[in-house]
Structures are given as structure tokens and as C-alpha cells.
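Question (not urgent): is this output format expected?
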Amino acid sequence: MAIAAPGNRELETALKSLVNVLEDGQKGMAEIGQHLKDPTLRRYFLAESLRRANFRAELENVLHRRGIHDVHETGTVSGSLFRAWAELRAKLGAGDQTLLETAERGEEEAKSAYKSALDRDLRGPIRQLLAEQQTHILMAQNYIRSLRDGLKAA
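Got this back:
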């Protein structure tokens, strides 16, 4: 049974939304990583997939500690579409640059979800956890963008 505290519903909504976006990120990074030709990029994307899974687990633990046990990881419709689009592009022979562009768009969705969550009235350690995760997401997006730009220039 969930705790009926005033801010609990807002927290639950924010964290469940992030859990779904992180589910998308985990699957998307793994999917793209499997199709990248460059082995270093492939390893990076698979490691990022695991990082998204860890972020998700941290948020689920916060929810569980607050008495919210009904956490369904469904991902989002847009995440499913991005993954399907990436898979189609890969099957049609898209190169690493195209796959990196797709990943960058997915990271934009995660960036937006974290901004939305942090715009809520969340306090203390939960806000700190989200800020730390957001920082990593932003760094990953910038890194992916720099990789894409590097391939474009080559």
C-alpha cells in the first residue's frame, strides 16, 4: 500500500515517468549498440544501457522505500517508435552517424523528462539523486553529439 503523503503522488508521478524513460533509454542504447560498426562505440552504448538500468533501479528503490510497489516498466510510445526506427535504419544499412543521430534524439527525451521531474517540488536526497542522474544524461548526450559531429566531419 502506498503512503498517502501530500507530496507522495507528485513524487510517484515524476519517478514513474523517469522509470519509463530510462526503460526506453536502456533498450534503445542496447539496440543501437548492437548495430554500431565501431567496436568502441558498441561497448560505450552497451555500458550506457547498463547505466540506464542502474538509474532505473535506484528510482524504483526510492519508490519502494516510500511504499509504492506497483512500478510497471513499460517505456513510452515515443521510445518504442525510436527503437523501431533505429532498428529499421540499421537493417537498411544506416551507418554509425545515422544511429548516433537517433540516439541523440532519444537522449533529448531523457533530458526533457529529467527537467520536468526537477521542476517539481522534490526535496533532499531525491532531488540530489535526480540531479546526479541528469548530469550523466547531459554528459552522455553531449558525448554522443560530439561522436556524431566527428563522424560527420570525417
